[in-house]
């Protein structure tokens, strides 16, 4: 590789058939419950109110 080439070897999945390579956060899912609509404790998710969808209220201020 010479100095004018871009080193992009680390930008893609290492092994495309590796199931861990396909795991990434889906932006359409609620970041708190990850789309389940409920917390592990069984309570309705307070962020998405049980819908499992991302809402504009996430994030800090």
TrEMBL record:
Q: Which SUPFAM superfamilies match?
A: DnaJ/Hsp40 cysteine-rich domain
According to the record, the residues making up region (Disordered) are: 1-25
The protein's matches in InterPro entries, at most eight in alphabetical order, are given as: HSP_DnaJ_Cys-rich_dom_sf
Q: Quote the protein name from its UniProt record.
A: Small CPxCG-related zinc finger protein
